[in-house]
Design brief:
- This protein has two domains: 121 residues, Rossmann fold (3-Layer(aba) Sandwich); 66 residues.
- Helix content is 50%, strand content 14%.
- Helix 4 packs antiparallel against helix 5.
- It is globular and about 55 Å long.
- The two termini are 23 Å apart.
Length: 208
């Protein structure tokens, strides 16, 4: 399966180690599911959100949409105004896997995350395990994001990581495929049990 043994593990954060989901705010926000779908498909879209991940301020992003969609002002403002409600806490089973990998002393462990810089600081205050990494590369600080290859390359260069000896885990298949294009073996995360099993297949044992 591999030409080299793994000595580096690179984690995505949201959806892997941290349970973040806008639906914690918006699941029952609107009086009709069609309104909610329209809101995310045409107003607070994933493309809009990724511009903040790439460095745009949340104030600028919010005002832009309020001007474009004044009838939707309150739900637009609540996207970042209630953002901490979307941050539901650690994915405890994955954090335990991280803890075991760290405790083994066998691996350098890094974070590569699409995250708006100011909002990432909130997570840094809340979650101690975010300080366990040997290094991290945050899109909002770098002004570039996944899946652009330059973003991955920035981590590889900054921390002198051999892509052929690295393993990347992300819940977004698009980001996984981009890592694989750079020669980084990757796991498309769906749940902690599956992650543990795929680590085992890669020769990395963690206890259940």
């Amino acid at each position: 399966m591999m030409n080299k043994s793994i000595d580096t593990i690179i984690f995505d954060l949201g959806g892997v180690l941290i349970d973040w989901n806008p639906m914690y705010v918006y699941r029952n926000y609107f009086d009709a599911e069609e309104k909610r779908n329209y809101f995310f498909e045409h107003i607070c879209t994933s493309d809009w959100n990724e511009e903040q991940d790439a460095g745009r301020s949340i104030v600028e992003a919010t005002q832009l949409l309020v001007e474009q969609f004044p009838d939707w002002e309150q739900p637009i403002r609540d996207y970042y105004g209630r953002w901490t409600e979307m941050l539901h806490g650690p994915v405890h089973e994955t954090v335990e896997i991280f803890r075991q990998l760290k405790a083994s002393g066998k691996y350098k462990i890094y974070a590569l995350t699409n995250w708006q810089a100011d909002l990432f600081n909130i997570a840094l205050v809340r979650y101690n395990f975010l300080h366990w990494f040997d290094g991290r590369v945050v899109s909002g600080e770098e002004k570039i994001r996944k899946p652009f290859p330059e973003f991955y390359q920035r981590l590889l260069d900054r921390y002198n990581v051999d892509p052929g000896a690295a393993l990347f885990v992300d819940d977004n298949l698009r980001n996984v495929k981009a890592a694989e294009q750079l020669g980084i073996q990757s796991i498309h995360f769906s749940n902690p049990a599956q992650f543990r099993e795929e680590l085992k297949q890669a020769g990395i044992e963690v206890h259940s």
